[in-house]
Amino acid sequence: MIEEALARASLPPLPRPAWLAIDQEALSGNLRAVRGLVGPGVPIAAVVKSDGYGHGLEVAARTFLAAGAARLCVATLDEALRLRAAAVTAPIIVLFSIPPSEVAVAAQAGLELVAADAGLVEETLARWRSVRARGPLRWHLEVETGLSRAGIAPDSVAGIGRDITSTPGTELVGLWSHLASPDDPAISSEQRGALERAADGMRRSGLSVPPMHVSATGGLFADTGGFDGMVRPGLCLYGELPADLPIAARARHARAALRPAMTLHCRPLRVSEVSAGTAVGYGGRWRAERPSRIATLPVGYGDGYARAYQPEGEALVRGRRVPLVGTVAMDALAVDVTDVPGVSMADDFVLLGVQGDERITAGELAQRRTTIPWEVLVSMAHRIPRVYHAGAGLTGVRTLAGEVLVRGESHL
Q1: What angle do CA 62, 31, 397 make, to 5 degrees?
Q2: One domain, residues 221 and 122
Q3: How far is it, in rounded angstroms, from Cα 151 to Cα 153?
Q4: Neighbours of 4 (CB within 10 A)
Q5: Rounded to whole angstroms, what are the CA distances from 71 to 65, 80, 306?
Q6: What would the pLDDT profile of 194-220 be if each residue is shown by its tens digit?
Q7: Nearest alpha-carbon partner for 324 in 300, 341, 356
Q8: CA-to-CA distance for 39 and 14, rounded, in angstroms?
Q9: In this structure, are 46 and 166 located in the same domain?
Q10: Residue 48, SS3?
């Protein structure tokens, strides 16, 4: 029972019988799988944006760094500052432009910024000069190579690079882009070519070209990225890959080593007998066709378990699949356990993850709601408790009240 395990580890009890179990050994193993793929000399910048893809920002960051990551990547300034507040001292790249007014805050926190828009870069450098802040202010210059989302046009890169390097207290530490279609070798090759043209323009202008990086999960496993200045894995570190991604021969061993790190557990709030014809859930969209046993589970769309998982959604109990019935509500859903004898209030249900010989994957859930595994993971609401473990031993808990770790460190 989860309550007994938490008590043995001197961790606080959960506020409700629903939790995400996060396997830190799986996270570490996934990082090591990427290390085996890229080799010992390539720095790994682990992407931990969006609450560590739903796994927990701080714990994911600490776990990847302990496993050998050299840097972390986040999307926003406040994510980076949250890591600094949690005593994470490793280099952190903020992948999207920050407000120019916050440049001194970012520099003081030792963050690495992205130069992705000429106007914002100039405004940020002007602000930097006006506040006379102490450096260094480190930049990764993003090149627009075909994603059409952010970045400096290749023929303008040398000029922006000169503006950065000529500003006192600033340093250019990376030149990078992001693959739009890593599953497509031709498109990826065009993007790599555009990045090389930007680098050549810098060389012709007398500028040194900093380490170049383009590979995220797709580029790594489809082997369409190239450049060994750094890699920026995200989804694969959490044990998932896109269903339609072609896996290069050299990446198959790494793929086989990946393990999903997230399992969504719950125990029922009620297990009740209903007669044939009984309606279950909002709108009465499901009615029992026979005398049935219905378990009410304390998870709903307010937790990120989407209404779109119905119809045909399933849960696992006692190692068997059982169907969701009725409508997924904000805080609860119902499952039909008639065909699994003996199910009680003490049973552990799994809505994402493995139980016995059965598995519900993020890819399966993504197909049900016509989306991608990334969205399934990051949709998991902050209010669901995270219970962290390494093997059989619990390592910490995070609830809305804060994070408590077994070693006694807490962030409340």
Answers
A1: 35
A2: yes
A3: 7
A4: 8
A5: 8, 12, 33
A6: 999 999 999 999 999 999 999 999 999
A7: 300
A8: 41
A9: yes
A10: coil
Domain that residue 132 falls in: 24-239
Residue 18 belongs to some domain of the structure: no
* Residues known to be catalytic: 49, 282
Q: Is the confidence at residue 174, as pLDDT, over 60?
A: yes
Q: By C-alpha distance, which of 102, 136, 105 is closest to 120?
A: 102
Q: How far apart are CA 295 and CA 334, in angstroms?
A: 6
- Best CA proximity match to 162, nearest among 125, 216, 196, 133: 125
Q: Cite the beta strand spans of 88-211 per DSSP E.
A: 92-94, 111-115, 137-142, 170-176
Q: Cα separations (Å) of 282 from 14, 104, 332, 356?
A: 28, 52, 11, 32
E strand intervals along 258-373: 262-266, 270-274, 279-280, 286-287, 292-297, 314-317, 320-325, 333-336, 349-355, 358-360
d(CA 358, CA 365): 14
User: Does the pTM exceed 0.90?
Assistant: yes
Q: How many domains does the chain divide into? A: 2
Sequence-separated (6 or more) residues with CB below 8 Å from residue 381: 302, 303, 304
> Which CATH number fits the domain that encloses residue 95?
3.20.20.10
C-alpha 165/C-alpha 114 separation (Å) is 14
Residue 232 lies inside a defined structural domain of this protein? yes
Beta strands in 168-326 (DSSP E): 170-176, 212-213, 262-266, 270-274, 279-280, 286-287, 292-297, 314-317, 320-325
Contact 8, 393 (CB under 8 A): no
Q: Is 203 exposed, middle or buried (0-12, 13-18, 19+ CB in 10 A)?
A: exposed
Q: Do both 188 and 313 map to the same domain?
A: no
Record the tokens describing residue 388, joined without a space. Answer: 């962290």
Residue 1 lies in a domain: no
CA 111 from chain center: how many Å? 20
pLDDT digits over 236-276, tens only?
999 999 989 999 999 999 999 999 999 999 999 999 999 99
Task: With CA atoms as reference, report the closest residue to 299 among 388, 379, 212, 224.
Answer: 379
Model confidence at 150: pLDDT above 90: yes
For residues 320 and 292, is the Cβ–Cβ distance under 8 A? no
Report phi then psi at 392, rounded to 5.
-85, -10
Q: Dig out the tokens for 37 from the structure.
A: 């793929």
